Amino acid sequence: MKSRRALLATILLPLFSLPWPAMAFDRAEDLEKATKNNTSEAGVAPENTYLYTKPDPASTGGIAGQITNPSQPIELILATPAAEPEKVYRGDLDPSKPGAFSFKGLPPGRYDLIVIYKGAFYEGLTLSRDPTSLNELDLEKINTTLQKSEPYFPDKTMHRIEGQTGRGGQARMIATYSRATGSLLTFTTYKGEYERDDHKRTFKLVMLQDVGPGWQITKTRNYFPVWAPPGTPLPKHHFSPALSKIRVATETKDIGSIRIE
What we know:
five-stranded antiparallel β-sheet
């Protein structure tokens, strides 16, 4: 009898020769880049090759600054406009100046930042324009909906949520999704195998609406999917108002030195 790996390879290998699009990937070249990322030791998940919005060459706006506290190296910094949460821009880091970052090609608007460190992430996301009115029952129902979603990630944690109660009400939350077991790889390989023992995790912006009998997830925005060795603690979440509502016009907005801890 064939082993599970051999059987999986027998099923999947013919699929790669079919002239079909790259499924969840935007283009064929994204799939190629994702394959290379997925076989690296860095832990980056393949989604990161196409996850972020490209700078707008017609826009001259940007953000520049330096985070002085925490003082540890930044792994990734992101900027997202609250009015268009599907857009997430990746910033540049200055290796010669710890904590220094910049964004270019940002259209005019107000931006919130997300700063990712090893073992922690800080966010200033604008979850609601109005004061939150969600009650305990709303939170219970929302958590139930969250836990039932995306079975691939059995463990999900609500970090921060804001919104309006009542039928038709909307809410947004930041949540961590994690899988504390290995995974079968469908469209890529890792070290020549179709399974990976590392644990996958990410954190997302989750958008919901009260549809009457309960809350329904209408959309999610993935921020940082990665693979981590078994036993690695989940990153700690922090909210920092200093990362919120940065106005960008037609020039680079210099926010100077900031402390987010």
